[in-house]
Write a sequence for this structure.
């Protein structure tokens, strides 16, 4: 699927995150664990920020100066309404070039929509945009090897891909990063998250 197809699909299902039944604590404990490794509280980036603002709220409360990017125009519109003081950009993360560097980057439940052949490049760019000792948290599919598939579990068909845990760890080691934490946080589901720190 092309990036605009992912954006269009999410434009159709923003109500899933706007519903009162959505768990606003989703991912928050994991982010608190990642923030605990952060030595500096400067700029932060939320990749695939969505509309809820819950991670932005946590970053603000933790002393960061956050911004968000997302490929869904509708998600960005709603995010701006919630946090008019925060910079949000409607962009494709794979082609985006940031003028800034960051102490903290989150790519929560967004990376897996990036095409398999683009994930290494995107993650390399994100690590390159981290300051020394900066922290990156990602969620991914905790498969043994590289994998990609499509499904319609949320309504419209969406593309999912994973480098596999070995693939992610090998890449981060190549990029001179340390893995601070790896967890299957919804086991036996394959939802996995990693906390990475730049050396």
């Amino acid at each position: 699927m092309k990036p605009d197809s992912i954006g269009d699909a999410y434009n159709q299902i923003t109500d899933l995150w706007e519903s009162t039944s959505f768990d606003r604590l989703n991912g928050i404990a994991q982010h608190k664990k990642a923030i605990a490794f952060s030595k500096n509280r400067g700029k932060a980036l939320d990749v695939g920020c969505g509309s809820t603002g819950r991670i932005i709220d946590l970053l603000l409360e933790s002393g960061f100066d956050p911004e968000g990017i997302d490929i869904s125009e509708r998600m960005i519109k709603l995010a701006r309404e919630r946090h008019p003081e925060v910079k949000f950009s409607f962009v494709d993360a794979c082609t985006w070039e940031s003028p800034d560097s960051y102490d903290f980057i989150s790519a929560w439940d967004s990376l897996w929509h990036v095409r398999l052949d683009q994930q290494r490049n995107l993650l390399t760019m994100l690590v390159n945009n981290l300051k020394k000792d900066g922290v990156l948290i990602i969620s991914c599919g905790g498969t043994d090897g590289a994998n990609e598939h499509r499904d319609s579990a949320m309504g419209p068909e969406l593309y999912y891909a994973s480098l596999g845990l070995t693939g992610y760890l090998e890449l981060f080691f190549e990029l001179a990063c340390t893995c601070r934490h790896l967890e299957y946080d919804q086991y036996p589901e394959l939802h996995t998250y990693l906390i990475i720190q730049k050396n």
